[in-house]
Amino acid sequence: xxxxxxxxxxxxxxxxxxxxxxxxxxxxxxxxKKRHLRTVEHCLHMFDRMVIYFFIAASYAPWLNLxxxxxxxxxxxxxxxxxxxxxTVYVFFFHERYKLVELVCYVIMGFFPAVVILSMxxxxxxxxLVAGGLSYCLGMVFFKSDGRIPFAHAIWHxxxxxxxxxxxxxxxxxxxxxxxLEAKKPR
Length: 187
Known about the structure:
7 helices, mainly alpha, 187 residues
């Protein structure tokens, strides 16, 4: 990172990405070993769902903080975190009651900031953002098919890992790579 915003954005994104995979791994490990751990499993399941909202917000942070935004788009920097907070409250009160509503909330939160990204003057990295988003969306088919398609949940996690990997590459390549940094800095 060359400046304060790059450092902050990297920490936010790194924390969101790491949290998603750590919480998911701990939850699935406890869930798999579930001997007398129902309360812990329930709390970790809720936390697993909550961290998804913050991961989505953290994934957008570098794009919203390090790129020139359109006139109204700068508000998306805080709107995305409000959406993550509302999603967290929703999971806390309605965990596993309205699964389709929760899925729709994830999708809306995932696509709503993309409109802002499309309005940015510099669209480098857009194909990778779309590819990562499509990986998450295709994975949702398997997520909703859990129990009907063999290994559907594991396949869902593979799509998440692929989408996260593509987005990680895009952030590194278009926002942090030295040749890109030189091109975007005014001289």
